[in-house]
Amino acid sequence: xxxxxxxxxxxxxxxxxxxxxxxxxxxxxxxxxxxxxxxxxxxxxxxxxxxxxxxxxxxxxxxxxxxxxxxxxxxxxxxxxxxxxxxxxxxxxxxxxxxxxxxxxxx
Length: 107
Hints:
With 107 residues, the protein is mostly helical.
């Protein structure tokens, strides 16, 4: 196996090594407020690209099938957004009657 074939096969690992070495040599390039602006590019652009790429990999049939489970989605959303907050609110009210620190309850 030649060098070019190895590089083509292991391009991702080689790329990671190059990026790590670049960061070791010139760390100020990627700091907050630096030329790459990681507070913007990582927080918004990279996360958006990851979710977009994940969405592109979904098969249309699987997406359609998942969308048809309306009752399941309503159950999950109501449990997450209604039941669980109400249960925690009730728990905090009960614990407020004990000797527990009030700042701990507010957290």
